[in-house]
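Help needed: design a sequence for this.
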Protein backbone atom coordinates (compact mmCIF):
# COMPACT_ATOMS: atom_id res chain seq x y z
CA UNK A 1 0.00 0.00 0.00
CA UNK A 2 1.37 3.39 -1.01
CA UNK A 3 1.40 6.38 1.28
CA UNK A 4 -1.40 8.81 0.45
CA UNK A 5 -0.52 12.51 0.28
CA UNK A 6 -2.86 15.48 0.14
CA UNK A 7 -1.38 18.53 -1.56
CA UNK A 8 -2.83 21.91 -0.71
CA UNK A 9 -2.56 25.01 -2.86
CA UNK A 10 0.66 26.17 -1.22
CA UNK A 11 2.49 23.06 -2.45
CA UNK A 12 1.54 23.77 -6.05
CA UNK A 13 2.17 27.48 -5.53
CA UNK A 14 5.81 26.68 -4.77
CA UNK A 15 6.24 26.04 -8.50
CA UNK A 16 5.90 29.80 -9.04
CA UNK A 17 7.29 31.08 -5.75
CA UNK A 18 10.37 33.30 -5.97
CA UNK A 19 11.25 32.09 -2.46
CA UNK A 20 13.94 29.64 -1.44
CA UNK A 21 15.17 27.30 -4.17
CA UNK A 22 14.88 24.41 -1.70
CA UNK A 23 11.08 24.82 -1.65
CA UNK A 24 10.87 24.52 -5.44
CA UNK A 25 13.23 21.53 -5.43
CA UNK A 26 11.20 19.79 -2.72
CA UNK A 27 7.97 20.33 -4.65
CA UNK A 28 9.52 19.04 -7.88
CA UNK A 29 10.82 15.97 -6.00
CA UNK A 30 7.36 15.35 -4.57
CA UNK A 31 5.64 15.64 -7.97
CA UNK A 32 8.29 13.42 -9.56
CA UNK A 33 7.74 10.80 -6.85
CA UNK A 34 4.01 10.89 -7.50
CA UNK A 35 4.63 10.34 -11.24
CA UNK A 36 6.91 7.41 -10.42
CA UNK A 37 4.24 5.89 -8.20
CA UNK A 38 6.14 6.20 -4.93
CA UNK A 39 3.08 7.80 -3.34
CA UNK A 40 -0.58 8.34 -4.16
CA UNK A 41 -1.47 12.03 -4.46
CA UNK A 42 -4.68 13.95 -3.97
CA UNK A 43 -5.91 17.52 -4.32
CA UNK A 44 -9.38 18.89 -3.69
CA UNK A 45 -11.83 20.89 -5.74
CA UNK A 46 -10.99 23.78 -3.40
CA UNK A 47 -7.36 23.65 -4.59
CA UNK A 48 -8.54 23.88 -8.21
CA UNK A 49 -10.80 26.82 -7.33
CA UNK A 50 -7.96 28.64 -5.60
CA UNK A 51 -5.63 28.05 -8.55
CA UNK A 52 -8.31 29.35 -10.93
CA UNK A 53 -8.21 32.71 -9.09
CA UNK A 54 -4.43 33.06 -9.45
CA UNK A 55 -2.85 35.29 -12.11
CA UNK A 56 -2.72 33.76 -15.60
CA UNK A 57 1.04 33.12 -15.55
CA UNK A 58 0.73 31.10 -12.33
CA UNK A 59 -2.33 29.21 -13.59
CA UNK A 60 -0.42 28.18 -16.70
CA UNK A 61 2.54 26.77 -14.75
CA UNK A 62 0.34 24.86 -12.32
CA UNK A 63 -1.98 23.61 -15.09
CA UNK A 64 1.02 22.23 -16.98
CA UNK A 65 2.14 20.34 -13.86
CA UNK A 66 -1.35 19.00 -13.19
CA UNK A 67 -1.69 17.71 -16.77
CA UNK A 68 1.37 15.54 -16.29
CA UNK A 69 0.58 14.32 -12.80
CA UNK A 70 -1.42 11.40 -11.44
CA UNK A 71 -3.08 13.54 -8.75
CA UNK A 72 -6.65 12.56 -8.02
CA UNK A 73 -9.24 15.25 -7.33
CA UNK A 74 -11.32 14.72 -4.23
CA UNK A 75 -14.95 15.72 -4.48
CA UNK A 76 -16.44 17.88 -1.77
CA UNK A 77 -19.27 16.25 0.13
CA UNK A 78 -21.68 18.04 2.41
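Sure. Designed sequence:
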Amino acid sequence: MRIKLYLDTSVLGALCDPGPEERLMATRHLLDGLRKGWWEGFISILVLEEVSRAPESIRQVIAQELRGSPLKVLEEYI
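The CA atoms of residues 9 and 49 lie 10 Å apart.
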